[in-house]
Design brief:
This protein is α+β, with helices and mostly antiparallel strands. The chain contains 21 helices and 22 strands. The protein has four domains: 282 residues, FAD/NAD(P)-binding domain; 139 residues, Beta Barrel (Elongation Factor Tu (Ef-tu), domain 3); 97 residues, Arc Repressor Mutant, subunit A; 53 residues, GidA associated domain, C-terminal subdomain (DNA polymerase, domain 1), CATH 1.10.150.570. Helix 1 links the parallel strand 1 and strand 2. The two termini are 50 Å apart. The structure holds flavin-adenine dinucleotide (FAD). The site of flavin-adenine dinucleotide has 37 residues, from helix 1, strand 2, strand 12 and helix 9.
């Protein structure tokens, strides 16, 4: 009988990363999906990245994951968001061709000969003595495996709502997954119910784009992946999005459907994403707002479908259409598909460990939407970590956990495991306390070494990185020594609207001024003849990193010092077997929470809501003894 090393349930963003990582590490992988053609389907917006999510994609890529490559190959618009703000929040985002994204995902998987794709529905998780032994299909077949990564997305007992109509389904046109929740509840897990929604899809030919604000991509688009060949990028023709707004008339029409809204009438029980509310929710919660911005985003190159970003709704179909027709540019609009909401089961993530292995069942991992997150990137990041850890366990290697100070992925998983969540969790830059260290530009410098050690990153990519490291350190050394005279630089400074200098100044000091762009400074007469400067000017990735390192040197140094101070607590380990009920000195809430969450370190314990400084002191004394 065939026994898989790692069996991944779900061909979504989490499942793809889990399967690719485990197979690349040498495991025999089964990847089951209910619909093979829907591999990596972008269930909602045809876009990857964005604020903080773009950071996750860069980190996934730096570790050897595949989302960045798929997004680059299917991208029809690329933008770096938040460029007017500090570099910590610069975030890459792409608009993607939905169909090509799925095709590219399939191609990437086909490059992994150790992955077997299976099109079936799994109805139960099979265990023996709290250890995984297999999974059962809806046809009653038992598939044997040593471990399972469950990435079932919005499919577990999925229920879709539009107005008064509710139908079973995981997402538009796809069946729900039944049986798995019930089999997990029998094993002692707790589940909850969440909700998310999607906007209507419109016919591009019925929209008057000529009166709307056009939003093109960047002139100099940047790929997500460090591996993407810049010379042939972007690979597909690039398109624009358009911007329009709702107004009070639109809001009034939407309000006429509130008595049939599955949200407001209480038919939807699941909690929705606070940060990505439906249009009806926005009207109620932000009643003082006269209008809401809408982005009209193309779903692909050979389709007329337009996604109305900002207009997610589950109001009755006729109300959606009537309201849309009052939006500027949409007067004659044809709605091809109405928006809808989907409710699904999730498993509060305090039930998994930092490796994403469940605390109850040995060899069972949860990743993606099932852990209460929302978003493709959050799912992919978890899938990668779960896949790595499932494979590591089979191969007898160390577990792989990223720290909060190393990666947004570390922040994401630590937040989930330590704080759990009762509403859909999405990543924000504000969730990362060390965000100046976790920039999108330096993801490779933070993580590629791990990807290489794990066997996920090729040695050519590591060699490229090492080459860049040399360029960066040599450039910084040079700019800390090389001086510019007032005569050489003052006309440039004057042109930039900043004070001239009276005596020669080193480049690193000048480059700290907010008005100065390092590249412009280096392009001044005479500089680019320097061999090292010419080399840096030819290498955009290194140039950007040198600029940030110089400009924010003081802040970065301070951030590293803070991380070092906190590290003492992160390194103070707590045995998982510790029985907190014996520690009578702890506060009763502290005792309950510690017993429930089972933190691995004092640092992690201190982040659990309800744990007091005195609980931490008691734990420290206990561990010392
Ligand atoms: C209507 C809708 C609106 C959304 N809106 C947003 C939004 O506004 N913002 C946002 O960030 N995210 C949104 N999302 C969520 C986003 O799609 C998910 O976060 C992301 O796709 C999760 O990835 P995943 O890998 O966990 O699961 P998914 O991408 O959902 O993939 C799940 C996979 O599991 C398979 N599967 C499930 N159960 C079984 C089973 N029993 N047997 C075999 N295969 C199984 C499915 O076939 C599928 O391949 C929305 C999703 C939907 C459906």
């Amino acid at each position: 009988m065939k026994v898989y090393d790692v069996f991944v349930i779900g061909g979504g963003h989490a499942g793809i990363e889990a399967a690719c990582a485990a197979s690349k590490m040498g495991c025999q992988v089964g990847l089951v999906t209910m619909e093979k053609d829907a591999m990596g389907r972008l269930s909602c917006n045809p876009a990857i990245g964005g604020t903080a999510k773009g950071h996750l994609v860069r980190e996934i890529d730096a570790l050897g994951g595949v989302m960045g490559i798929i997004a680059d190959r299917s991208g029809i618009q690329f933008r770096m968001l938040n460029r007017s703000k500090g570099p910590a929040v610069w975030s890459p985002r792409s608009q993607n061709d939905r169909k090509i994204y799925s095709l590219e995902a399939l191609k990437v998987i086909a490059n992994h000969p150790k992955i077997e794709i299976i099109q079936k529905s799994i109805v139960s998780i099979e265990t023996e003595n709290n250890k995984i032994i297999g999974v059962k299909t809806n046809e009653g077949e038992l598939i044997a495996t040593k471990s399972v990564v469950l990435c079932s997305g919005t499919f577990l007992n999925g229920l879709m709502h539009t107005g008064m109509s509710s139908v079973s389904g995981g997402r538009f046109g796809e069946m729900p997954a039944t049986g798995i929740t019930e089999s997990l509840l029998k094993l002692g897990f707790e589940s909850g119910r969440l909700k998310t929604g999607t906007p209507p899809r419109l016919n591009a030919n019925s929209i008057n784009f000529s009166i709307l604000e056009e939003q093109p991509g960047d002139d100099d688009p940047k790929p997500f992946s460090f591996k993407t060949d810049k010379s042939s990028f972007p690979f597909l023709p690039q398109v624009s999005c358009h911007v329009t707004y709702t107004d009070q008339t639109v809001h009034k029409i939407l309000e006429t459907g509130f008595d049939k809204s599955p949200m407001f009438t209480g038919r939807i029980k699941g909690i929705g994403p606070r940060y990505c509310p439906s249009i009806e929710d926005k009207i109620v919660r932000f009643a003082e707002k006269e209008k809401h911005q809408l982005f009209l985003e193309p779903e692909g190159l050979d389709t007329n479908l337009i996604y109305v970003n900002g207009f997610s709704t589950s109001l009755p179909t006729e109300v959606q259409l009537a309201a849309l027709k009052k939006v500027r540019g949409l007067e004659e609009v044809e709605m091809i598909r109405p928006g809808y909401a989907v409710e699904y089961d999730f498993f509060p993530p305090n039930q998994v460990d930092l490796t994403l292995e469940t605390k109850i069942i040995d060899g069972l991992y949860f990743a993606g939407q099932i852990n209460g997150t929302s978003g493709y990137e959050e799912a992919a990041a978890q899938g990668l970590i779960a896949g790595i850890n499932a494979a590591s366990k089979i191969l007898g290697r160390n577990e792989f956990v990223l720290k909060r100070s190393e990666a947004y992925i570390g922040v994401l998983i630590d937040d989930l495991v330590t704080k759990s969540t009762e509403e859909p969790y999405r990543m924000f830059t504000s969730r990362a306390e060390h965000r100046l260290l976790l920039r999108q530009d330096n993801a490779d410098r933070r993580l590629t070494k791990y990807g290489f050690e794990l066997g996920l990153v090729e040695k050519e990519m590591l060699a490229e990185l090492e080459k860049r490291e040399v360029i960066i350190s040599k450039s910084i050394e040079l700019f800390n020594q090389k001086k510019i005279s007032p005569k050489e630089i003052n006309p440039f400074l004057e042109m930039k609207g900043t004070n001239g200098i009276e005596s020669p100044e080193i480049i690193s000091k000048l480059s700290k001024r907010p008005e100065i762009k390092l590249k412009e400074l280096l392009l001044l007469d005479g500089f680019s003849e320097d061999e090292k400067i010419a080399e840096l000017l030819n290498d955009e990735i290194s140039l950007e990193q040198v600029e940030f390192e110089l400009k924010y040197e003081g802040y970065i140094k301070r951030e590293f010092e803070t991380v070092k101070k906190l590290e003492r607590y992160e390194k103070t380990r707590i045995p998982l077997s510790l029985n907190y009920s014996n520690l009578k000195q702890l506060s009763s809430e502290g005792r309950d929470k510690l017993q429930r969450f089972k933190p691995r370190s004092i640092g992690q314990a201190s982040r659990i809501a309800g744990i007091t400084p005195s609980d931490i002191s008691i734990l420290l004394v206990y561990l010392k003894n």
